[in-house]
Amino acid sequence: MNKKTDKTIAQSNSSDAKKGKRTILAVGWASFFGGVSQDIFIPILPLYLTQILGFDKAVVGIAEGLVSAASSVFKIVAGRLSDKYKKQKPIVMSGYALSLIGRGLLAFVSAPLAVFGLRFVDGIGKGVKDPPKDVLVANAAEKATRGRSFGIARMLDTFGSALGPLILSGLIVLFTQHNIEPSRYYRWLLVLAALVLFITIAVVQFGVKETKKLRTEQLNTKAPLAKSFYWFISIAGIFAIANSSDAFLILRSQNLGLSIVAIPLAYAVLNVIYGSLSLPAGIISDRLGRIPVITVGWTVYGLCYLGFAVAQSAWQVWPLFALYGVFYAASEGVGRALIADVVGQEARGRAYGVYNMVIGLAALPAGLIAGLLWDKINPSAPFYFSAVLSFFAVALMLAFRKQLNPKKVAL
User: Fold this and answer.
1) Segments of the chain with pLDDT less than 50
2) Cα(62)–Cα(290) distance, integer angstroms
3) What CATH code is assigned to 2-208+225-404?
4) pTM for this entry
5) Which of 62, 76, 112, 128 gives a 20 to 30 Å CA spacing to 103?
């Protein structure tokens, strides 16, 4: 009887492990196509808003800040719904659908308020999908390889983000050769970026298998979150004010003389480095700890932004974008793995919602400050500000490392 029970448990565990790996890969591939969409869209968006619609830099900062603010609020909502109903797939799919609408319709409006509204809708979509996606990976991953699992998901996400700019550059060259005006082909590209999200929705629908949850009596969705979690999001929130929208990197690249065709290629370099290093960074964090890897990532960020501040030539953009990819690889997936370490399965949706809300809310003042510094002082000013504040966040991580390290790893 006991041998049969043991065999049944072993078979069940093996089946759960296979489903878990399939879910991690499916989330990764969904993120891959989401990345393709995002990075066809993001490199041209600030250029579209400033060159075609005639907005100034402060308006771009506000628009992107609104995306993050909307995202933040709805990350809390999505996280709580994920914990309450124990279903992530429908929430993730609805988020991608909202982003599809927000990006596609942007090609057909020109008034600032309409643009703000659609960026807000895209922000809602981003907010709705992100926490349940993180929960899917966290619940599907084995405790000992959690960093690796998040690394796989981030790697696929980022390779999609590398492919997107390559597609974008190829299409821009094609349109230019056929003497098509930017005011026309920018709009076509916005629609294309939206349509790619249909593939993402299909991958989630048919590829993701939600991991079996703990029994209801074992769950306590109102349990307090760990103190180390609050220490981390407090310092991460300060860093997020330094981390203004990547739109300013694109504008700075253009300011330094990089061509419209080369900008997406530089963005692709960022994402190739990011994708290539995400898995190694996750594995290193499994062995050495999350905090050291994140601290290195934030330090690299400060150096990168300092480089953008002092840069004087277009060629300098290329190594700086590569360095920026190192920052992303060392911080994005590893930070999410840290949260899974300190928060149990029953409250991960809420924890990811709180974390993403803090990061997103900080993006609104970050974008506004960066835009004002650019318009009122000079293009280097927002990068000096971000570099100094990021180094301050690194100092806080080092000063409070004992409070940040979890005493035990959550299941």
Assistant:
1) 5-12, 214-221, 408-411
2) 33
3) 1.20.1250.20
4) 0.69
5) 76
